[in-house]
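Input record (one chain):
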Amino acid sequence: MIGWLNSKKPVKLLLALVICFFSFQYFRSVYHFKFYSAYTIGKCTSIEHQNASTYADFIFFVEGRQYDGSTKLEEVNSVWVNRYFKVKYSSKNPEINEILLDEMVTDASAVEAAGFKLKSKKE
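The corresponding structure, as predicted from the sequence alone:
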């Protein structure tokens, strides 16, 4: 038993498990987006830098419940923060989601219909 632990087999096994986990997560998202895609409007709340990656954090509502999401970015644009965009999510599991930063929503009535409360001009 000790000889097995000192060999490279545990490292290979752990690496294989990690690869399987991330493959499962990826293909689960692809499956849900292919068969259960739904769209709503979300608000980009922040852009975070984590290690060597950058993520856009956002919130959106489905049936009155708020969900948080985070999408990895290839490019960064600071004007995205506090703006509204189309969000794709799984109708079976809204925890599977992504914000579509190339589809900005500027229609105030559509944003309010999606569950956000906008400040009125009278306030």
